[in-house]
Amino acid sequence: GYKKGRLVSAEVYRRYQFPWMRKAVEICRRKNVPFIFHCDGNFLKVLDDLLDLGINGLHPLDPTSVDIRDVRRKVGNRVCLLGNICQTYPLGLGTPEEVRLDALRLLRDIAPSGAYCMGSGHSVQDYVPLANFNAMVDTVFEYGYYPIHVPERVIREAEAAVERQRAGRKA
Predict the structure, then answer these.
(1) What is the CA radius of gyration of the chain?
(2) For the chain, N or C: smaller number of CB within 10 Å?
């Protein structure tokens, strides 16, 4: 897929891909192995089809293509949502403070009810600074244990740190 949709029509997926995918999902289920659907881009027009197949996860939920909060409202905890930290900004071109803020907001909004795995909205490219990657991982180690609760105070502190940093750049 791409940011605004799929590469082919939903009918093509339903006729050619999903029957084979259903067989793969069934094999995984018999082996007690999760089936995680990977799709770059916007897959929302076939979301109900994917749920009917019995998939266990959606990956990577690129925030430039889909709103993970909207997907969570639609799927509840029926499937695990994976990813959603934008690989370009903040992960690639932002600062560790901006990555931390994005990660904290995702943990606050998506993770408390379960079925969420933090990660990049695509992959971790070579251009991603190690400090930014570590900010994402460290935030998960700090707040990503169930039961997940990110206090609003922590979000406000992270927002203030980003604002101070931006103000310092303007000066």
Answers:
(1) 18
(2) C
Instruction: Report cis status (omega within 30 of 0) of the bond before 19.
Output: no
Residue 83 CA, chain-centre distance (Å), reads: 3
Tens of pLDDT, residue by residue, the chain (171 residues): 666 667 788 999 999 999 999 999 999 999 999 999 998 889 999 999 999 999 999 999 999 999 999 999 999 999 999 999 999 999 999 999 999 999 999 999 999 989 999 999 888 889 999 999 999 999 999 999 999 999 999 999 999 999 999 998 886
Contact 86, 62 (CB under 8 A): yes
Distance of alpha carbon 171 from alpha carbon 123, whole angstroms: 34
Amino acid sitting at position 9: S
DSSP label at 13? I
Q: Is the pTM of this model over 0.70?
A: yes
36 burial level (CB within 10 Å; 0-12, 13-18, 19+) = middle
